[in-house]
Structures are given as C-alpha cells and as structure tokens.
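User: Let's play a game. I give you a shape written as tokens, and you guess the letters that built it. Ready? Here's round one.
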C-alpha cells in the first residue's frame, strides 16, 4: 500500500540534525504557506494581531523523529504547533507567536488491522480517504468521518469529531479505543478511552500533547446504502417531519440525517450550471436496507415531504464531501458552526432570515444530526477577499452569526484563535478550569500551541488581544451590527498582484487563484509532493505562490524552485479539486515566470521524472488512481 510507504525523497535534509527522518522548510514561501488554513480571514488582520510566520516547518516521518523534535523544542523553549491537513478554519494551526510548525501528515502508516475485533491502529497523519480505501479493499469501512475527506484522522479528534454518521455511531471519540500521545517532555504514553485523561485530548486543538497513533473501531462495509431525500416548503415543516422521524420505529435503523436549506440547494444548482435540484429545504436520510428506505420515505411523504428523484438524492449525497465547491461562484467562504439542541432550531432559523434582510447577505444553512437531540449547524456565505472593506464586513458578520447562534441556544464548535473570546460558550468555566489545570500539569512551559485556546497572545504588548477577552468581546460585539452598516457605505474593490500571461487574462488567473479552498485535497494525490515532501509542489502551494507572487518572487530558494517544477502534469490535482479548477493550464505560466528569474532546474527535473517512472511508490499511486494519472513524461523531458 502506498499509504504505508515512507521512502526517503531525494531532497536535501537539514544538515545539522542527526536524524534522517525529518524534513525541514525554512524558506519564507514555505513558512508562509504552511501557516494558513481554510478560513478567509483578511491577511492584514492576522498580521496586526499575531506573529503568524513560524520560525521553521518540520516534517517528521517517524514517531522517534517527532519525539526528538519535541525534546529539542522544550530545551530551547520553542513553541510547537501541530498541523494535519490545515482544514480547520478557526486558526488552530496558525502561529500566534511564531514557533515550530510540525507537519504530521507524513506519520500516515497503518500499523495493524484486527479484523476479529474490528479495530484498526493507524498513525494520526493518515487521511480519511486513505484509511477508507484500505478498509474497503478488505470489506470494511469507517464508522464516522468528517466532511473534509482529505483531513487527517488525528486532526479530527483534536478539532471536533462531529460529521457524518454521528447520528448512528456517536461522536468520533466513542470509536477511539486508545491514543498514543507524546507529552512536552517527549515521553509517549498510551491512554485508553476509559482513562479519565482521555477527554482532555478531544477537541482541545493540540494543547495537551501530540497524538501520534490511534486505535479506531471500524465496521463491515454495508452491502448498499439507500438515500432518501424530501423537499419541504418551509423550515418549520421540515423540522416537524424530522421530529416524527427521530421518534419513529425506523429511527434506530437510520445512519445519517442532514438538512440543507433552500439557498444551499440554489447554490448547488448554480455550481452545476443548470437546475437539477428543487430549490426548497431538503431533508436527507441514509439507511442500509430496502425496507428501512421504504419506511423512511413513507414517513417523509406523510409529513408533507415531496420525495426527490433517486438521481437528485444521490447527487446531493455525493456533493456532501465538497464543502468549499461554492467558491466557484464567489472566491471567499466563511462560516459559523454550533452544536444546537434540535428543539432550538426553529427560532434560530427565523432569526437568520431577519439577519439576511438586515445586512443584505445570503446564507446557506446545513445541519448534521449528531444524535436524536442535537445537530451540528453550519451557516456559510460567500465573500470576496479581494475587496478589502467588504472582507472586513464579512469577517465581522462571522462574529455576529457566531454570537447569534449562542443567543439562540447553540454551543460553540471550535475555539482556535478567532473564537477565543467566546470559549466559555464551548466549555463551562468549571470545565475550562479543569482543562487548564491539566495543561499546567503536563505542559507547564506551554510548549504546545502557545498563544491561543487558553491564553491569547498578540502583538503590541497584547493590546490588540484585549478585544478577545471574553467580557470585552461580549461588550464590543454589540457594536458589530452598526459597524457593518457603516462600512457598507465604503465598499469597493482592490487590485491584486497576480502573474500575467498573454494567453490567459489576468482576471481569469486571479479568480482561479482565489477560488482555491486550501482544503488540501490535492496534497494527498500529488506525485510531486510524494517526491519532494514540499507543499510548493502541490496545487495548493502553487496557487498560494501565484497569489503572493509580488512579495515572494525574489525570496524563493533553490529547493522552492525545484519543488514547483517537480510536476508530472498528471491532472490528479484537477480530479480531486473541490472547486474543479483548470489547474494544469496555469502551471506553464508559473514555470515560465520563475524560469525568467531563477532559470530552469533541468538536472533536478530529469532526476524527478526518472524517479517517478521507476518508483514502486509511484506505481502505488497508479494502482489507486488508474483513471486520473495520465503522465505526460515525454512532454516533460522535451521541456528540459
């Protein structure tokens, strides 16, 4: 399995380390790239508040290497920021005070699969889709998984644990049999699910230590999955039907329940380019038998639900994994997330309609039932990060919507940096106090992820951070509504520095660059990344470079340039891109501009192509992706 293969790539390692299983990234471009996540927070806001540039990025490929990194960091009083796929939008992997970003995505081995007990042991950096491929080949599947299919298993435990199939199987932590954790002293310990310390590592965003291995419950792959979908004219009508569903005899047979509002369906039609879905509120339910499917459909029909076609239901279910695809319409995406009692949803949805009208903003609402009584509710909207005043308004709107959700009974889903002022709406003060006491006990020097979650640290003697103090944040948020109205008077557009090319317009390139969701889907399937271990080889990295070309074009290292040119033009990045971007057409433009400044690294390109052609690791990629890997080897050689 290629997910198990950790062959050493042919790139230079840090010369002064005795370990040969650590890759380091010290260039400005790489450090900036690795310190961003999926949130569209204006860059100048980040810079005003925090030192977001890490001192270095390290990529351990073994647990022993990671232990050595942590020990060195402790001895030098350096901050350690764990990073998975960077698909968490609350600033959990963004440095607040510099430090060392530890990219855990290369700790992705499958250690053992116990089919008899239906438990698999994996390293925390493995991606969900990689794990599910491995299990499917053996007739098994995961019990729950996040909406970000390309995120890491360990990352989901650290940041949330709510997603698909929670309705049937509960929170992801309930599937975790044990975790192996490295503490601030570099010691590794196995903590079982029944250990009272276990909860301290769930949803605490890497504050307590680094989880490196997990034992996870899995299940037999169902013979078939049935998707029921019904449309409703109003949200109250849908919620009434939902109540009857969860109280019915078939409720225990249901595996997943989702709600999409009418605007979400409208957005999906726009993306598709034609109206294939009815633009009404939809209730989507999954079961695993024909009889249960029929029973669910009957209840939906009896409660004024208008059953969709099979094609519509399957299409919506398939698209659930592509959260950021709406960026094809408008290039920015922001959202608020809460855990809501289902009984509180009606009043919350009414309040959202009022906000839409007041601020002339359209929201999409989607909800996933995590039990028969609670739902994860995501309110998202599209924005334009290229318009400075508008982006400030939209950033404030996220804060406003987050506060609104709390007002109507929602519990905060994540903290990170941006929700720090509202942390007591995720944890009670007593719960938070216990977490802080545990933190002080196991990490007294605050090595892990310092400057967020517990105590926010900002620039300028901490003065900007005062606004994030819970009491001050609550008071100041009263003025957000009037401020948004005032700022709307000054909305305008700003120019963006992008690479020009005679064959593709500046406007098109600019739009493509900003449509990237930073989700990391392309990273996992990129042969160049497999070779270099550097994200500048991937579509996410290259689009980041184009977006910031003006400030980075004269600061790139030779390693950066080689990483960008290590590309097979295989189009695998396009195959998994949520935004369905025409990526490969842009790469020659980037390479042409870089070649004018730095020259073309011909020897390194030839070595890369030869290695890919004869590498067993690359053959593994071919086995997993036979339809998407069409390597243009000879064209690459001709370019040299």
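Assistant: Ready! My guess for every position:
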């Amino acid at each position: 399995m290629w997910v198990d293969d950790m062959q050493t790539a042919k790139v230079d390692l840090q010369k002064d380390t005795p370990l040969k299983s650590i890759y380091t990234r010290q260039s400005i471009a790489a450090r900036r790239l690795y310190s961003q996540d999926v949130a569209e927070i204006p860059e100048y806001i980040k810079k005003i508040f925090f030192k977001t540039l890490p001192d270095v990025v390290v990529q351990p490929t073994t647990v022993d290497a990671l232990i050595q990194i942590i020990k060195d960091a402790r001895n030098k009083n350096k901050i350690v920021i764990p990073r998975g796929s960077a698909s968490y939008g609350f600033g959990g992997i963004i440095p607040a005070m510099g430090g060392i970003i530890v990219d855990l995505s290369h700790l992705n081995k499958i250690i053992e699969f116990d089919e008899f007990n239906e438990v698999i042991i994996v390293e925390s950096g493995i991606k969900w889709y990689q794990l599910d491929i491995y299990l499917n080949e053996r007739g098994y599947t995961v019990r729950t998984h996040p909406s970000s299919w390309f995120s890491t298993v360990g990352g989901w435990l650290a940041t949330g644990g709510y997603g698909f199939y929670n309705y049937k199987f509960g929170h992801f932590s309930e599937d975790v049999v044990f975790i192996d954790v490295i503490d601030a002293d570099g010691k590794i310990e196995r903590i079982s699910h029944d250990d009272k310390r276990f909860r301290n590592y769930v949803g605490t965003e890497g504050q307590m230590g680094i989880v490196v291995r997990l034992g996870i419950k899995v299940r037999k792959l169902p013979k078939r999955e049935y998707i029921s979908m019904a449309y409703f004219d109003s949200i109250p009508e849908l919620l009434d039907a939902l109540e009857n569903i969860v109280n019915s005899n078939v409720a225990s047979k249901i595996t997943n329940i989702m709600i999409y509002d009418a605007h979400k369906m409208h957005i999906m039609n726009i993306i598709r380019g034609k109206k294939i879905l009815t633009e009404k509120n939809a209730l989507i339910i999954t079961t695993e038998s024909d009889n249960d499917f029929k029973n669910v459909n009957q209840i939906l029909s009896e409660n004024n639900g208008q059953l969709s076609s099979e094609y519509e239901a399957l299409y919506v279910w398939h698209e659930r994994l592509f959260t950021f695809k709406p960026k094809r319409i408008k290039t920015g995406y922001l959202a608020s997330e809460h855990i809501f009692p289902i009984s509180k949803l009606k009043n919350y949805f009414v309040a959202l309609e009022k906000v839409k009208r007041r601020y002339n903003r359209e929201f999409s609402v989607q909800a996933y039932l995590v039990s028969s009584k609670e739902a994860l509710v995501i309110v998202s909207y599209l924005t334009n990060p290229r318009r400075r005043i508008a982006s400030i308004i939209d950033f404030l709107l996220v804060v406003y919507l987050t506060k609104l959700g709390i007002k109507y009974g929602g519990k905060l889903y994540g903290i990170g940096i941006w929700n720090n002022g509202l942390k007591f709406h995720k944890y009670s003060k007593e719960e938070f106090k216990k977490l802080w006491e545990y933190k002080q006990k196991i990490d007294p020097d605050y090595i892990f992820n310092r400057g967020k979650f517990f105590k926010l640290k900002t620039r300028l003697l901490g003065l900007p951070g005062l606004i994030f103090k819970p009491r001050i944040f609550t008071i100041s948020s009263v003025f957000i509504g009037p401020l948004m109205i005032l700022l709307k008077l000054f909305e305008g557009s700003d120019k963006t520095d992008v690479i020009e090319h005679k064959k593709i317009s500046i406007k098109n390139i600019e739009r493509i660059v900003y449509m990237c969701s930073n989700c990391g889907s392309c990273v996992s399937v990129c042969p160049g990344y497999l070779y270099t271990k550097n994200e500048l080889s991937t579509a996410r990295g290259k689009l980041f470079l184009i977006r910031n070309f003006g400030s980075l074009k004269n600061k790139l290292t030779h390693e950066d340039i080689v990483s960008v040119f290590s590309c097979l033009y295989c189009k695998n990045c396009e195959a998994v891109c949520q935004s369905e971007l025409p990526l490969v057409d842009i790469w020659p433009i980037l390479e042409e501009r870089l070649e004018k400044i730095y020259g073309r690294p011909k020897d390194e390109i030839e070595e890369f192509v030869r290695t890919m052609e004869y590498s067993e690791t690359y053959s593994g990629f071919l086995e997993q992706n036979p339809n998407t890997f069409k390597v243009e080897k000879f064209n690459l050689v001709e370019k040299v």
